[in-house]
Amino acid sequence: MGAIVRLLMGIAGALALALGGLGLAQAYAGDSDAVEKARDSADGLLRSALVHVPGTDEELAPQILDKVAEVPLRFALAPVGLLLVGLALRPADGGSSGGAKPAKGKAKDEAADAEMGRAAVGGKLARKAKKDAASLARKGEHVEAAELCFTAGLLDEAADYFLEGGELTRAAEIRHDQNRFLESAELYAKAGKHSAAAVIFAQQNEFGRAAESNLAGGNLSQAAEMFEKAGDFKRAAECYEKTDFPRDAARCWGKCQQWLRAAKCLDQELVEAGGAANRDDRAREDYGKLVRMAAQLYQRGGELEKAENVLIKGSLWEQAAELAEKRGDAARAVELFTKARQAPRAAKALEKTNPTGAARILAEYHRDRGEHADAAAQFEKAGEQLEAADLYRLLERYAESAACYDRAGAPAQAAEMFVAASDRANAARCFERAGKFAEAAECYALDGDDVREAELLEKAGANLRAGQVHREKGRDDAAIAALQSVPPGHKDFAGASALLGEIFRDRQMYPVAIAKLRDAIGEGELDRSNHRVFYCLATVYEASGDFAAAVALYEKLLAFDVRYEDVHARLQQCRDALAKAAPAEGAGSGAPQSKSGRYVIRGTLGRGGMGVVYKADDTVLDRTVAFKVLPDALRENPQALKNFLREAKSAAQLNHPNIVMVYDAGEQDGVFYIAMEYVDGHTLKEIIKRRGRIAPKGVAHVVSQMAEALAYAHDKKIVHRDIKTANAMWTVDRKAKIMDFGLAKVIEEVRNHTTVVSGTPYYMSPEQTLGKNVDHRTDIYSLGVSVFEMATGGLPFTEGNLPYHHVHTPPPDPLEVVPDLPQVLAQIIERCMRKDPEERYQNAREILAELRAAPIA
Fold it and tell me: How far does CA 141 lie from the centroid of its chain?
C-alpha cells in the first residue's frame, strides 16, 4: 500500500514539477521556440488525460496551462512537485536494512523520518522562496514577491512585501491570520476598509478607534454605539441625532448634562409619535414616560415654559399647571388646573390676582358636586348674582335669593322672592322696577302705603282704581288727574266719569260734573249698575238750577226704587222750585247752561285729552259753534292761562280751508272755553274705527289737504304738537280740516305743573317724547303716524313701552301690512317717521310735491 502511495505521489510530484516549470518558463522566458514546444507537448498530454475524466472537454487543457503561468501557481507548483517527488523516493523502512524493528517503533520512526524530510525540503523551499522573492522585489514586483512568500508560508515577509506593493488589504488579512489584530485593524483602516477595521477594533475593546472607523466609513449608528461605549457621549449623541435615534441621542446628551439638547431630542420623538391617542395601554404608558422625561430635562435646563408645553402634549394637565404657577403665569395655571379637574387648586392660583374669578371657579366646582349652599356663596362673591339667586331659591332661602336677583338687575324675580320672604316694601319696589305696576300697587296696599299704591295703579293703567284710592283718602286733585286719563271706549271710562262727576259736583263745577255723569250713563237705561250715577246727576241738575232735568231723573229713580236714598224729599224740593220759576230758556239735555252767557250749550259733540266739546249757539253772532271746555287746571296756573289766551289768539289768525277756525276764547260759568268753527262731519279716527283702513286714493286726498294746512300754519310759525286722526275732521263736503291748533302747547304746560296725565302717546315724535324743544318737524312725524293709521287701519306702535318705541324702534313696514299699498305712500310714511328730525321732510310742501309727482289712480 505504501508503495502505491509513493508511486502516485511521485507521478503527481513529477506532473506538478513539470507544470510549475512550464509556468515559470511562460512567465519569464517569453515566446521562445522551446517554450512553445514544451507547451504543445503538455497540451497534448493533458488532452489525452482529460478524455478519461467524465464531464470535461478538450478545451479545458489550454485554460489549465494559462493558469499555471499566473501568480501564485507558477511559484507554488514546482516546489510542491519537488516535495512530492522527494517523499515518493524516500526509503520505505526509513532506515538501514539491518534487523527488523517492532511495528510500533517502526511507525514512530517512519513518522519522524517523514517530518524531518518535510522540514528539510521546507527549509530549502523557504530559502529558495525568500531568494526568489528578493529577486522579484528588486525588480519592483513586490506583490509577486509577497505572493511567493505567502505560498511558502513566509507570512511576515509576505506582509512586508504587500505593504511595499501597496496591497494594504492583503497585508491586513495576513496580520489578522497571525492574530495581530490591532495591526490588522490599522491596516484595514489605512486601506479604506473602515467597516472591517471597526469590527476588529470593537472586538479588541478599542471602542474609540472602532467609532472613528465607523464614522469614517459613514456608519453613524455603529459609530454612535462605539462612542457611547468609549464614554464619548457628546459625539455619540451627535451621531445618534444624525441617524434619527432621538431617544438614544437624548440619553447621551443627558450623560453630558446637556439638558436642553436632550430635551429637544425627546421633544422631537414626541412629535414623531403623534400623541398618546389611539394607542394601546402599554404604548400610552411609554409615551407618558417619554413626556415626563422631556419635561424634566427642560426643567433642568431652565426652560419651564417648554417643559410645560411638553406636559400639555401628554395631557398631564396638573403637572403642567404646577409649572405655569411656578412661572408666575396665574391665568395659564388656572386654565390647566381646570382641565385637570383641580378646581380648588385653580381657584387658589387665581385668588391673588383675580379673587372674583377664583370664586367663580369654586362656585362651579361646588355646584357640580351638588353643594348648593357653598356654590351660591361663591357665585355671590364672584358677582354672578343670577346664579347665586337661582341656587338660594332652590334652597328656599328667599331673602338672600331676592337680594341677589335685585343686584343682578332682575327685578321681577327679585320681587317674587321678596313676596315669598314677606318683604312687601322691597317686593313693591322691585315690581315697580320690572314694570309690573299692578303687582307693585298691591304690595304697597298691603304695606299700608296708599299714596304709592295709587301712583302705581296709574302706571299700571288702572286709573279708575287709582282715582278711587285718592278719593277715599281725600286727594281729589290727584283723583281727577287719574280719572281724566281714562280714554273713551275704555272699560273703566264709565266708572271714571261717574267718580269725576261726583268730585266736580262736590266742587260745584256743575257743567263739567253734568258732562262727566252723562258720559258715565251713555246710552244706558237706569238699572242696578248705574242708579247711583243717575242719582248723582239729578243732584247736580238740582244744584245747578236745572230743576226740570232733576225732577225727570228723580222720578225715574223712584220708579226704580221707591225707597232710594232721599229721592222723595229732593223731588218735592225741585217741584217746588219749578213752581216758583219758569223753566230756563234754552235748557238742553243736561248740558251746562247759562242764563247770561254768550254761548248756550245744546249737546255733546265729543271729548278727548284736551277737554269736552259741546255743540252750542253763539247768541251774539247767531251761529252754531263747537264749544270746547278746557281742563280746570288752567284755573290753578295763571301762566298757563295767559299762554292759552295768547295761543288762542294766534290760532284765530289761521284762515285756511283745511283748518278749523277759532272764533273766541275765554271763561264762562266758571270754566275756560274756546269757541271754534262747527264742522258737520266725523273725525278720521271715527271713520277708521267704523270702516277700517282708507283706500290709497282717499289717503292721498286727505294727506294732501292736511299737508297744505300744515304748510300754511308752519309758515306762520304755529306748530300744532298734537296731529292725529282724532284731531282731523272729514266734512260732509269731502274736506279734511285740522282742529285744535295751538291748544296742545297750552295743555302740555298745564300738565307740566299739575298731576293731569296726558293721553296715550301713540303719535308723539321722539323729541316730544323725550321732552325736548320741538319745531314744525314734530308735526311731520305725527302726520306720518296718521298716514300709517289711515293706510293700514292700525297704529305702528300699540303695545309695550310706547315712548321707547317712538325713540328707538324702527316703525313697521306698511307694505308688510298692506302689500298693494302704493310705493309713494310707503315712502312718505317711512321718511316722516325717521327718528332724527334732520332726516324727515323739512317742509310739508315736500310731501305735496311727492304726491303730485306720483299720483295715485
Answer: 89
